[in-house]
């Protein structure tokens, strides 16, 4: 209110001065009263004109977007312009802060692995995250303000959205068959809706694999137990000759060995999944490791195959030798099981140009159809279940191989063609391969058992 008293005094002085000048002018015209009125009115008019000019400048500044500072006039209009400008600047700062908070909030939602969709009261898209757009095959910008039911035409989704209860999530096939989605809708505000989408493809796949795993373990153990129970009953209820008793005991021993191998493989898988990653500074010579894997293959082959090994000298691998040997030996013994008699099996090594190491097990066996390759490393997955059991496999070997090589930072590559054989390659990163001290070569090792 600092402007009020000066403005009041200025107006009083202007009125007094105008009246006095009017009286003097009226005296000359012999009409002092009229002169006083005209003088006072002129003074008031001058004050009003001055206020109109100040108000005009302030209005122009407001109309032109408040660019620059408000007019810095003295008195009332200067005070009014300053306070308007300060209020506008404070509002702009508050809006900027709110916009920043909103942007950070939306960025946080964008970082979520779940999709988020905001719908208005008429089910029009108010906002859509990139993940939700990918899940529902939408365009996050182009589809704004569009009815979501015109864009997502899955009948189950439309019915769920319009139901209004939303007590439980709904599971849907993603557009284009790209997986499985779980959708949750929640109401908020004035009939607005929050739609959350989650890709549950891997979770459902893991649950299915867990169920299959339990079922397979139960089946694998129940089968030899059933056989053992039958033999025990036979021995208890029937008089057997010495030869018959010996044959039954041999069969019982085979079933016992089968269960022991299965349990050992299961324990190894559990250990691989629960153990820390192998150290990168514990080095193992490659040559002896490949030779031991070849020896395991020869013992299983019993002279029915040609098993050759290219065991280079002077190469070390970083990791656990027991795990690496298990992986290579599993591949080699698998090659023996699925290669007909007189077939060839080769275990070799090479270092790729990028420094990666490659252990290859190659055979001339029956081969594997292409459609089976992606699932070969699943637990208990068998291309031919009866043949696998006949050859003594548990269905866990390749799963063990995959876990071992992944724990060492590598990967497993498989190439196969029915009737032509298979190639299994263990790829190890360059950081786990080194050249050891040079050792004179003694020649290629190859042989048969």
Automatic annotation (TrEMBL):
It holds the Pfam family HATPase_c. It is found in: Cell inner membrane. It is a multi-pass membrane protein. GO terms for molecular function: ATP binding; phosphoprotein phosphatase activity; phosphorelay sensor kinase activity. It is an enzyme of class 2 (transferase). One of its GO terms (cellular component) is plasma membrane. Residues 216-432 form the Histidine kinase domain. CDD domains: HisKA. InterPro entries: BphY/WalK/GraS-like, HATPase_C_sf, HATPase_dom, His_kinase_dom, HisK_dim/P_dom, HisK_dim/P_sf, PAS-like_dom_sf, PhoR_N. Keywords: ATP-binding, Cell membrane, Kinase, Membrane, Nucleotide-binding, Phosphoprotein, Transferase, Transmembrane, Transmembrane helix, Transport, Two-component regulatory system. It comes from the Bacteria. It catalyses: ATP + protein L-histidine = ADP + protein N-phospho-L-histidine. GO terms for biological process: cellular response to phosphate starvation. Its EC number is 2.7.13.3. Gene3D superfamilies: 1.10.287.130, Histidine kinase-like ATPase, C-terminal domain, PAS domain. This is histidine kinase.
């Amino acid at each position: 209110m600092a402007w009020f008293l000066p403005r009041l005094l200025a107006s009083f002085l202007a009125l007094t001065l105008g009246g006095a000048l009017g009286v003097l002018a009226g005296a000359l015209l012999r009409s002092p009263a009229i002169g006083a009125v005209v003088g006072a009115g002129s003074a008031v008019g001058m004050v009003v004109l001055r206020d109109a000019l100040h108000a005009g400048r302030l209005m122009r500044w407001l109309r032109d977007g408040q660019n620059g500072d408000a007019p810095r006039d003295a008195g009332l209009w200067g005070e009014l312009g300053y306070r308007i400008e300060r209020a506008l600047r404070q509002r702009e700062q508050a809006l900027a802060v709110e916009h920043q908070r909103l942007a950070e909030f939306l960025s946080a939602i964008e970082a979520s692995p779940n999709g988020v969709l905001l719908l208005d009261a008429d089910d029009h898209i108010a906002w859509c995250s990139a993940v939700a757009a990918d899940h529902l095959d939408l365009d996050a910008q182009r589809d704004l303000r569009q009815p979501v039911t015109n864009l997502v035409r899955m009948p189950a989704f439309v019915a769920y959205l319009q139901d209004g209860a939303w007590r439980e999530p709904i599971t849907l096939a993603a557009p284009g068959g790209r997986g499985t989605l779980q959708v949750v809708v929640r109401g908020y505000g004035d009939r607005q809706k929050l739609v959350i989408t989650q890709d549950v493809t891997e979770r459902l796949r893991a649950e299915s694999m867990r169920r299959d795993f339990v079922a397979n373990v139960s089946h694998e153990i129940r089968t030899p137990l059933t056989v053992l129970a039958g033999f025990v009953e036979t021995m208890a209820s029937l008089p057997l000759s010495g030869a018959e008793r010996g044959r039954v005991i041999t069969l019982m021993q085979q079933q016992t060995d089968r269960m022991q191998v299965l349990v050992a493989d299961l324990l190894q898988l559990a250990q691989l999944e629960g153990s820390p990653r192998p150290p990168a500074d514990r080095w193992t010579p490659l040559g002896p490791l490949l030779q031991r894997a070849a020896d395991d293959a020869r013992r299983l082959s019993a002279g029915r195959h040609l098993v050759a090994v290219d065991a280079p000298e002077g190469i070390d691998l970083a990791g656990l030798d027991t795990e690496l040997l298990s992986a290579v030996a599993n591949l080699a013994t698998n090659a023996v099981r699925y290669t007909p008699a007189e077939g060839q099996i080769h275990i070799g090594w090479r270092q790729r140009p990028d420094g990666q190491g490659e252990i290859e097990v190659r055979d001339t066996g029956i081969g594997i159809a292409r459609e089976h390759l992606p699932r070969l490393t699943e637990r208990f997955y068998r291309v031919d279940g009866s043949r696998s059991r006949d050859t003594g496999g548990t269905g866990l070997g390749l799963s063990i191989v995959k876990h071992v090589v992944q724990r060492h930072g590598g990967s497993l590559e498989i190439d196969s063609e029915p009737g032509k054989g298979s190639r299994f390659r263990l790829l190890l990163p360059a950081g786990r391969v080194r050249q050891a001290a040079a050792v004179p070569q003694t020649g290629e090792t190859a042989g048969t058992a």
